[in-house]
Amino acid sequence: MNILPGILENSYEAIEGSVAEVVSSTHKVHVDVCDGIYVQAKTWPYSHIKTGRIEENFHISKLQTEDMGLPFWEKTEYQFDLMIKDPWRTIPVWAQAGATSVVIHPTSCESKEKVLESIALADSLFMEVYISYTYDEWMLAKDKNSEALTAYGVVGLQCMTIKTIGVQGQPFDVRWLEELAFVKETYPNLLIQFDGGVDEDIPEDVAEKGVTSLVIGSAIFKEGNANENLNFFKHMFS
After folding, report:
1. Rounded mean pLDDT of 194-199?
2. For residues 3 and 213, is the Cβ–Cβ distance under 8 A?
3. How many angstroms separate the CA atoms of 131 and 138, rounded?
4. CA geometry: angle 27, 131, 166, nearest 5 deg
5. How far is CA 170 from the centre of its chain?
6. Which terminal residue of the chain, N or C, has fewer Cβ atoms less than 10 Å from its own Cβ?
7. pTM (2 decimals)?
């Protein structure tokens, strides 16, 4: 079971600080990118630009030209969760910034074709792709998900185990636990990632149900020592 620290911050400096707290105990971090349009929250780099063009952000421009690297890039990989409208517009930017994987939300795209275009673009830039749904989104599109989930370059399904994305501190959506058998039977080759509401009360048998990774935000960073909290969860699911 992989534990990915989930980072949702308004500034590059805050992201750097969060990564610094856990880098000694993780090989990958998960950074939420929220544009204030697709979701209500607005995080870095959207929190520091006026036009919506993230290339205008100081740190993004430096990352693109390789004048700087992501914090501790030599020690940890970065997965960016693109909770933004029209993700295909910025996927090349995240590749240039150093992302090794991205999370794409189909409901952020205006059409199925744009979802597939986003996947193909990320794959062409050597980034792994996770496709993400809330439980309610999944059930509405259950019979229509296969084309995206079986597209070349897609390695996993991210189950949003909260009801409202872009907001930390929500309760865990237990409905996904009953759906896992169907997911594993229908898509046996996909990695399964839970994101949202994960804390010490989550059932410890999620790995046995087929979950391969957990994104944990508030329970790691909210209180106490983040590195110790991370290691607590690593031990819990070892």
Report:
1. 94
2. yes
3. 11
4. 75
5. 16
6. C
7. 0.96
